[in-house]
Design goal:
- It is built from 18 helices and 22 strands.
- It is α+β, with helices and mostly antiparallel strands.
- Among the domains are: about 5-40 and about 230-300 and about 445-510, FAD/NAD(P)-binding domain, CATH 3.50.50.60; about 105-220, no CATH class.
- The strands form 6 sheets. Strands 6, 7, 14, 15, 16, 17, 18 and 19 form an 8-stranded mixed beta sheet that branches. A 5-stranded parallel beta sheet has the order 9-2-1-13-20, covered by helices on one side. A 3-stranded antiparallel beta sheet has the order 10-11-12.
- It is globular, with a radius of gyration of 23 Å.
- The two termini are about 25 Å apart.
């Protein structure tokens, strides 16, 4: 396949994974990224003497990355320092009640039994069994496969297995399904939070998302040096196979020739031709015409009411006193239904649930200042109703009060603090309104409404968290692998690109031969 030119737009997880598979297959790949570093939503923010992981912080489904690196002749373990977390997350409620979920399911069962009684422990066993069944049913038929329709998914699972089809619980909400396993409302909160992992509400998301419980039990990994090191390792691997990365390269348009995607034009005016283009931007940007009117028709737009959640985050250095946090910590509101009703109505909750990532835990000197990420869910209205500084400050006050009521005192070093609101995420990821996960996974049809790897435009492929199979670090990477596989399968039938001409008779170099900006 030498001589074939592929352009990948965006060095997020999907673009990084696709670039590895394409380059390892011998295709000439150029990755165009408008930011200065790879990783997409992964980002690091300076906070005094620290660097804070300020994007995705949880690393699961390691098997996706093991397979990706193996396929390219490398080992994930050789490229990254990975430690399996013994405690998956620490959870807290008013009055100082806490509950840890452990990597060892038996330890979690015992902890839940101590926390809420023997019936709750039995409920947890049944819940995890059901979650494992859902995961096993969908792993090969959905997560690792091209985007299905409801009919094709039923065919993959087996039309002769109606029990298996119903077992994935597409027609029940996560919240209602949890009620069959747990009487304690705190446990329903804890496991209902899995809906927020893809920017959804547990009151509207399908019970299928129970599978996330199994994903976490398979392993939550701590990445030495922070999540950005994963993106760096993926960039290095693709580069070793000949891929070229161009940072600071802002794509203004995807250009069509005879109805086929054949080139991109940068905001600088430079034009690059290619045999195919893989777009790892949020599909909302395509639908809004931010990559040109020609590419606009490749995907459907998402109504604002169908957007996933956004967030308000604070990256900071701070001191913690009270109970000892783990790497991942959740402090629950007193009224989950009211919290998500406010978010659905486009408002910040009066009593938000707070996620705290203590970047250097569990290995941290007691009493010392440390890097922290604080996160509260927010509606994705950054383009239509941006939050005022007063609202953001009030949200921080409520967030710190929530931690205090749960037994943890956080004293921030204000001069180190960086707040990021939905309007900031909207600027980072245009046309999304700040939605961090694409379309919200609400209702049984939502998973089928994400676009797949192929589009209505020949030569244009999609990857990323807003495409199939969904949001999150491993899912976005999996989308890149699916897109690369589809592109490679189509490549033999694609006519090689020709050097294009611009006004004045100057030829534009191929994607792999242009000088860096």
């Amino acid at each position: 396949m030498s001589g074939r030119q592929i352009i990948v737009i965006g060095a997020g997880m999907g673009g990084l994974a696709a670039a590895i598979d394409l380059a390892a297959a011998g295709v000439q790949v150029t990755i165009l990224e408008k930011a200065a570093t790879p990783g997409g939503k992964m980002r690091e923010i300076a906070a005094g003497p620290f660097t804070v992981d300020s994007g995705p912080t949880v690393f699961t489904m390691r098997w996706v990355f093991d397979a990706l690196f193996e396929n390219a002749g490398a080992s994930l373990s050789d490229e990254l320092a990975l430690t399996r977390a013994d405690i998956l997350a620490r959870h807290a409620w008013d009055g100082g009640a806490t509950l840890d979920l452990h990597a060892d399911p038996a330890a979690s069962t015992d902890a839940i039994g101590t926390f809420a009684g023997r019936d709750a422990a039995e409920g947890f066993k049944n819940f995890t069994t059901e979650a494992a069944t859902i995961f096993a049913t969908l792993k090969g038929t959905y997560l690792e496969a091209s985007r299905p329709t409801p009919i094709s998914l039923a065919g993959r699972i087996g039309l002769h297995r109606p029990g298996a089809l119903l077992a994935i619980k597409p027609f029940s909400t996560l919240w209602s399904a949890l009620g069959h396993h747990f009487r304690d409302p705190r446990l329903r909160q804890l496991f209902g939070r899995y809906a927020t992992y893809c920017g959804a509400s547990p009151f509207d998301a399908p019970a299928t998302l129970m599978l996330i419980a199994h994903v976490e039990q398979e392993g939550v990994w701590l990445v030495g040096g922070g999540m950005q090191r994963l993106a760096d390792a993926m960039q290095r691997l693709a580069t070793r196979h000949g891929a070229e990365y161009r940072f600071g390269a802002d794509v203004a348009s995807i250009d069509l020739e005879h109805g086929r995607a054949s080139a991109v034009t940068l905001s600088s005016g430079e034009r690059l031709t290619a045999d195919a283009i893989l777009c790892n931007a949020d599909t909302a940007a395509l639908a809004a015409g931010l990559f040109g009117t020609g590419a606009k028709k490749s995907v459907s737009s998402i109504k604002s009411k169908d957007r996933s959640l956004s967030a308000v985050t604070w990256s900071m250095a701070a001191r913690l006193t009270g109970f000892t946090p783990e790497r991942h910590n959740v402090f629950f509101s007193t009224d989950y239904a009211a919290e998500f009703a406010a978010l659905k109505a486009g408002r910040l909750p009066e009593d938000p649930t707070i996620y705290l990532c203590a970047n250097t835990r569990p290995a941290h000197a007691t009493g010392a200042s440390e890097p922290l990420l604080l996160l509260a869910n927010a509606p994705a209205r950054g383009d239509t109703a941006p939050l005022s500084s007063k609202e953001i400050d009030a949200c921080l006050t409520r967030s710190l009060a929530r931690l205090q009521r749960c037994g943890l005192t956080l004293t921030p070093q204000r001069e180190t603090m960086t707040a990021t609101a939905p309007q900031d995420f909207a600027r980072l990821f245009p046309a999304t309104g700040g939605a961090l996960y694409g379309r919200a996974t609400h209702g049984w049809m939502a998973s089928f409404q994400r676009p797949g790897a192929t589009t209505s435009i020949p030569g244009l492929y999609l990857a990323g968290g807003s495409a199939h199979p969904g949001a999150g670090v491993p899912m976005a990477a999996q989308s890149g692998r699916l897109a690369a596989a589809r592109l490679l399968a189509d490549l033999p039938s694609i006519r090689p690109s020709r050097r294009a001409a611009i006004s004045g008779g100057m030829s534009t170099a191929s994607a792999t031969m242009d000088a860096k900006p």
